[in-house]
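User: Fold this; tokens only.

Assistant: Input:
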Amino acid sequence: MLKKNFSFLYISSIFIILLMLLRTGVFSHKTYADNRFSEVLNVKAGTITSNVFFDGKSLSGLSVTEAVDVVEKPLSRIKNTRYLMKAPSPSEHLFVATYRDLGISWNLNEIQKILLDAELTGPLVERYKKAKDYQASPVTLSINVSIDDAAAQDFFTSLNEEWQIEPLNAGLTNRGGLLRVIPSVDGTAYDFSEAFSKLSQDILSGNLDDSGRYYVEAAAVPISPTLTTERVEDFTILGSCTTYYFQPTEEVQFNREVNVTVAANSLNGRVYAPGEMLSALKEYSPVTSEKGYLPAGTINDGGHVDEIGGGICQVTTTLYNAALAAELKIDVRRSHSMLVYYVPPSLDAMVYAVGHSDFCLSNDTSDYIVLEAWVDPAECSINVNIFGQDDRSPDHSVTYATEVLSITPPEVICLEDPDLPLGAYMQDRSVKYRPDPENPGSPTVNSRSWRITTDGGEVTREIMNPGDLYNPSPAIYYVAADTYATVDAVWNEETQRIDVNASFFFLNGYPLSTDLNLMSEAEREYFNATMRNEMAKKGLEWPES
């Protein structure tokens, strides 16, 4: 009985639905005056319901994908056109962009959502209800093309950065002792704003043709250099310095010459604005083989070792002394841990990439400064010139002097070498023993430096670097195994020689400037008397002065 009742209710329901469909015209060909209601009510699953229109056409009966294709068809020109970015010169500046690169878009996501909402899915009753809803409230779709100006600007900015020709600042050179101006050269930037404005109008008004190409030609905009030729014509040398290195004879020494050349080239032509800081380590970096640096001798951990970039400290020291002559502000300066041979104590400056020890100075002049740095292999010299506006008076001058507070000769280590020839009584000592070229010895030195300024005939002295301590390294000698050149004899002879040389330049334990002209008359008399006594002890004479 229940089964029969269920069958009766099911058949009755189907009959009622069919009756309603017939009454509403789903299965009829009845038309309406309004075009929006002129189509047959569509309830087919997987298609767009009735009363969804685009550009005066019904999308009813189409799948969502087919409907999207219909909606996007008028945009085919925009999608398929190749947008050719072009610069007036040089000719190789050409870039093919897409509409996405230029920030062109339309409301496709919104349309897809509407079409998905209008898709007929689910049981027949639900499809029928959705069709009736759209019959009561038809939907008309429209494409809204828009251009994202910010996205387009980002694209043009990156393109300009790639194409832009940087200006060249005017430079100066004093090589050969002749001061010459190197002329400046304007650069070129590219402005797409006017061309992009026209493109935007053509896109929004539908003025693209069927050629598939659209040229967006930029306007060339000159870029003036920071320093023009006219501006630097009044510049002069503010300070300069030249230091020398040993003539290379071995691979590691040639490597050192390469390193100082790479470092000097990093400084050459650099321009610094008033108040701008120069970091030597930043200019040299990265101190790696990829930049051209090679393994060469450097001071590290209390001795000499080979490291990538060995030798660049001499470039730094040369720059430091040129900056002192130019009277620029020194922000960061550290002395070496051991003496260097190319400048007096307390006038050196070091950098070390691994330990991030830097040398920094600031341009505290009223105008820009320009650096010139180069290496002359023929002279084995490193040269730095600093150019700028010299605001100092003609009767102004500055010099720098080293004062050694104490010096202790290095330890002498003598090692017997059986390969050295046996000596005779009158044999020259150079064949009885020989120094180790890699371990010549370095004394312990405590020093400081002075700045001596002259203005209008008035001289002032001030301590610049209050105290630098240079650590020692032993001097190693190889000694012949014979009775005339024993280890003890060589030790006594070499220790005396080193001590004599040290005493000649420095008065041990007495604060002595290497520039005797800086001493007062009383100081000079005391120094000469002391030196005569010291030299007499060693069988030497100290000249009267």
